[in-house]
Amino acid sequence: MKSLINVLANSGLLKKDLDYHLVRASTVIMFFFFGYQKWFEYEAQTLIPFISNGPLISWMYPALGIRGASWFLGVSEWTFGALILAGFWRKQDVVRASVPANDA
Question: Model-level pTM?
Answer without folding.
Answer: 0.68
